[in-house]
Design goal:
Length: 148
């Protein structure tokens, strides 16, 4: 599968978040063979929990599937540029590849506000931004327009 195919799976997760009133962000983690081993969506509103971001959900599921906290060889695909918390989780899980859709100008930590992956941590994943960015941003824009 191509990056766009994985991002479409992440977008499907994002659409699931709409049903609970959560910001539509979705994420999938693929292993080195390309199999999806983790998926998640924003669930902050649903669970009343500030840390229930899509990336956290997907990383937790991937760790359970892999039987390890180390997700070497995996790739994370998320519809919105990760925040500092999620970037930290990516570093801690040793995920080598991060692919995101839309930029996040308020809290994006892959270059929009800062790039945590360029700091002197022990792990620096490769970052690929802008994959299906218009579709990812459009879903978010529609959600926030409906709130206003």
């Amino acid at each position: 599968m191509e990056r766009e195919d994985y991002m479409r799976l992440a977008l499907a997760e994002a659409r699931r978040a709409l049903g609970t009133g959560d910001v539509p962000v979705g994420c999938v983690v693929a292993d080195r063979d390309g199999r999806i081993i983790g998926a998640g969506r924003n669930r902050r509103e649903e669970l009343n929990n500030a840390v229930r971001h899509a990336e956290i959900e997907a990383i937790e599921a991937a760790c359970a599937a892999a039987g390890s906290w180390r997700l070497d060889g995996c790739a994370l695909y998320v519809t919105l540029e990760p925040c500092p918390m999620c970037a930290g989780a990516i570093i801690n899980a040793r995920i080598p590849t991060v692919v995101y859709g839309a930029r996040e100008p308020r809290s994006g930590s892959c270059g929009s506000v800062l790039n945590l992956f360029e700091e002197r941590y022990g792990h620096r994943p490769a970052i690929y931004g802008g994959v299906l960015a218009d579709e990812c941003a459009g879903l978010l824009r529609g959600f926030f327009d409906a709130l206003r």
